[in-house]
């Protein structure tokens, strides 16, 4: 007997769950409605566009995209690969959500369970930045994300493990691999490169200067006692120093040297005092409350005092860069809702209120969460109120308002005014950026409580010059010719033999905290269907990509929390993906198995082309 198709027969959660597992049993009428909702019903070939960056911007992303495209074409899907400048890719994907699939590395920040909250929670499905750019909605995942925030111990671990299993099944994105960061470095002036993760500002501060080493030659009028020169292929560093600009920030390494945060993460898992010398938590009505003490006599690079009022302003500003102003949308309507900063929204959204108690004491109130989760909010850059308070107006170009954006989100912020260990000197767009040691920073003092001894009197250089070059090979040759000390952006694996043959270079290889992913836009059919996304994940041979694209300098993975204590044993890589194993071997798809999987998902084939059911 056919089951009647009414709203009471199939609850939304049951539908989502059955789509994820593929075990739904519905009547024909319900199936038709379900196909219409999930994008299954189409007489035409399924076509997808994959957006990524060109080879000059990234050594791996385009090659991954082309491999994935080849597998999708073999599966009968029409595919187009569209390379574009990284700035434009991030604008289209993270700001405008104009994509089907994209291939890119993530920023190095998804290493704790709560980092997945803004990445995956449905409340951020319409947000910008790395806040759920996939438009992913999963009620079970939402509940587990909430649960891990306000539980601890074994209960939190169980919630995280269930969350990771759900994400691996429903595939809002496919984790491809964690690459090795490959760099060429000289050791005749600076050492400790193995500990220097240059994706993080702490990497630069961990360097040691070799005793008696002579600095690179610099212009005599600007000569410093010691200079660190970094060769990079990323010219955006020389054009924009706005810490809030999504499309200009591959990492926060340089802006993290210009701006201090209340705390820093020495291991990617915990948070330790930085601009704040200490903090203490108490219980509030809604969630925890923290009182933080700022280090004494801290100032901004322009000489203005840094106070608790700047900290309170920062959290209010990140939550709403218009500070309550009315912003006119693109259709001319007035919008009085908040305009949050796309970057750091995951951390700042933990804070419900911030107020200055006195000049050195700030009080932060949080949502319902454990204190260890709340400390993530301490890692946002603290902004000077006297500078950013003037950037709340609607953004405009040539007098034309852009709509739903503020000047804070579009300014290039040059020259920047921060409080970090380095201060801005000058920039030449697309060529170079020069920063110098800020002598009034707390690292230069002997009484910087809580700062590890190896960071005392950091940095080990008086000047940092970022020099833009055209390619990975040029970057390595710039270091080999003694015109730079290190390559700032990671190099492709193809440069390893060249670095190895140069006796004056050290090859620095360390596992990155970033991972490459194939991201799916779950707002667009047929990608709205988690079973379809799950089947797509079966078409990606991660082991083959690791060998052929990364040339072995990567580790394939099935979860964004791979290589952390949170990863359950049944999600560990064991030679194949434990949830979505490749439907074939050695990079070759088993076409009959692929067709069977798509048919099981409700699709059909017409003359070898995949079409809707």
From TrEMBL:
Keywords: Signal, Transport. CDD domains: PBP2_NikA_DppA_OppA_like (cd00995). Residues 328-347 are annotated as: Disordered. Residues 271-609 form the Solute-binding protein family domain. InterPro entries: SBP_5, SBP_5_dom. The keyword GTP-binding does not apply. The keyword Aminoacyl-tRNA synthetase does not apply. Belongs to the bacterial solute-binding protein 5 family. PANTHER family: OLIGOPEPTIDE-BINDING PROTEIN APPA, PERIPLASMIC BINDING COMPONENT OF ABC TRANSPORTER. This is ABC transporter substrate-binding protein.
